[in-house]
Amino acid sequence: MNQVDSKSFNPTAFLQELFATAISASHPAQTLSKHLPKDTRGSVTVIGAGKAAAAMALTLEQHWKGPITGLVVVPYGHGEACQYVEVIEAAHPVPDEMGVQVSHKIALLTQKLSADDIVICLLSGGGSALLPLPAVGISFQDKQSINTALLRCGAAIDEINCVRKHLSAIKGGRLAQMCAPATIHTYAISDVPGDDPSVIASGPTSPDSTTSEQALAILEKYVITIPKSVREWLNNPHSETPKPHDLAKYNNQFTLISTPQQALNAAASKAQTYGITPWILSDCVEGEAKEVAKVHAAIVQQIANHTQPIKPPCVIISGGETSVTLKGSGRGGRNSEFLLSFILSLTKQPQTQRQVYAIAADTDGIDGSEHNAGCLFQPSTMQQAHLKQLNLGEYLANNDGYSFFELTDDLIITGPTRTNVNDFRAILIY
Amino acid sequence: MNQVDSKSFNPTAFLQELFATAISASHPAQTLSKHLPKDTRGSVTVIGAGKAAAAMALTLEQHWKGPITGLVVVPYGHGEACQYVEVIEAAHPVPDEMGVQVSHKIALLTQKLSADDIVICLLSGGGSALLPLPAVGISFQDKQSINTALLRCGAAIDEINCVRKHLSAIKGGRLAQMCAPATIHTYAISDVPGDDPSVIASGPTSPDSTTSEQALAILEKYVITIPKSVREWLNNPHSETPKPHDLAKYNNQFTLISTPQQALNAAASKAQTYGITPWILSDCVEGEAKEVAKVHAAIVQQIANHTQPIKPPCVIISGGETSVTLKGSGRGGRNSEFLLSFILSLTKQPQTQRQVYAIAADTDGIDGSEHNAGCLFQPSTMQQAHLKQLNLGEYLANNDGYSFFELTDDLIITGPTRTNVNDFRAILIY
Questions:
Q1: Which pTM value belongs to this model?
Q2: pLDDT digits over A236-250, tens only?
Q3: From chain B, which residues contact A within 8 Å (Cβ)?
């Protein structure tokens, strides 16, 4: 090993430290204040939604000198006690009535603003589900049933987002329209590959490039039953989301304060302090988790067998958002699915002389619907698996990564981190 | 760009040259002779199977000084005219009666050998299907129906191989057993991720670590109807494949003459002559082609947006064997599926300033069951797609990459190359 002192070096603790570094580097407490306007003495209305919204509001309160009022909505369990900003918790990822009520309340807050007013909009991943207020005349039930139908019929995410934005009172730039003519400063934490402002939390303050006509065509393409109210709305010119020229009239600024890339860079710098060469594979990896894992395993083999493109000790770091097509009835999110498939791929390849450790976790602290952020792979993982006669292939086929890593004692539990820059994977080869 | 002269540089020709380099670097004409014994004056019996078997025999004839007799089997269209070695063509990937007859003839050739005899066994990808002779007492039809059932029930490739070897007269080291006590020199071209000798052409001269008991358990696990003859055979101690200690008694040498890694290294060296930084991602990428493509696209984004881990102009090179789960009724192999999904992923991400070109092809010259080796992605691909209103997502959903790239005029047609080191992908970013 290069500079790594093999006696004192703890690979598992090292990977956990990289993950903690990625989280703290993207936490609003670290990243928001430097983006605020120089003059913070004015009065502001704060609105926001997403897993980091309360933490963002708290940080804002600590740095804003002028009077603050407002309301943000976060998923249940992601709240923080703010002094001036009201924090309400609602359901995520499937919206509930509370989400409808809060988003209605947020809409009301924006109604009497003048050109002298300043709105600070705090957005992060999860914000879309937390702002489910339907457009005028459409019931929450109708909106939900269309959403469910779109998810079931295999519509592309772009198509789902187009429809969502056109059936929403808030998304696709409508919130910005409501705030007009006030000045809006949006501060956002990106959890989407590519960091597109119109995708983060479904872009409530960003112009939308899709049209009502397209939304209707998508519903017809998938032969989805369209309630009369929805058809009428989509045929109504008012259903059109604001386009760039509509919002360009106002002072509407968008600032990304935290991105996946930032988190990966911070982890990479941390690795270097250990003398371990970091290699950021990508900040925007997408695809089926168990297949993405096979590619990561192949890259590990290349490093271990051919020291290409870099020599161990090194750590491959990647972010993005993988997905899982459920076929089994097990527990666990995409990160446990990823790691289980990764281990399975490694065990199928000829053994190398190198030691491999890995971590796969969600920076928001919740991997899917379980209470763990993610999981670890270390030598004891395989020892436990052998001892307990766990069949990796069967756990994977049953989408049961959580149970597997629970049994091998490799769950990482952080609780909600109050930030969200999506997946974090680090694989150490040394 | 670094040293690349942008005026005279032709990115498409560059990628095609890398592919041609990978093929020629792994062709037996380039790689076999240096591995032959120093003394080639003895009499040899040549046997062999696979896409490269005839080309290997031809090269051997050119370098072997002593008398040569023998027989090799290749897929239809992969023959070469040899002077001393008989070359017979049979069906691949689904075996036919011709394959049964030829493999029987090969078995007969090995029956009267003494300890003074030398056998040269020439193996390459495709050899398994070309040597379908069943074990004693099992009919070709029964062996085939079990094989088909295993493929249908979703058995893992390891499981399929275990059963195949135990129902075969040739595979899993049995050919070596037949040749004993003669000296065997096996020369192999690897088309398998990991280059395991017992996997290449199902390892006719390599010991097998699986057992008849396991083969029976696999058939029972997937509730496959087991004909009486097969059950009796697998319960017969003679059905056991030779283990390492069985073959260690004989002079049985195995030499890899060409590997995927060799081909990738040659392409990488060629890229360097153009001043383009090569980066070999892995020689053993596996997984669903369209998902593997998404990871490649994410890596391209990272290079284009963040120049991590290398700066353009650069070329990402990878090998291995991806797979396609057929859902549509289109045409094309895994490489056209890969490239179509790759392009689709790129178009979904924010555009970069960089130009991206790509090639994905099979080094054996046949991508799946079509006549093309693979396909290209270049600026004209998207121009043609727009002009002809081709919907990338629909072509991909229908597994119809061949038709797409036929319409954009991007098919690569080489004909059988008479080598086979599996997939070759190169993505140029500049």
A1: 0.94
A2: 999 999 999 999 999
A3: 156, 158, 193-196, 261, 279-288, 291-292, 294-296, 298-299, 301-302, 306, 308-310, 318, 320, 345, 348-350, 393
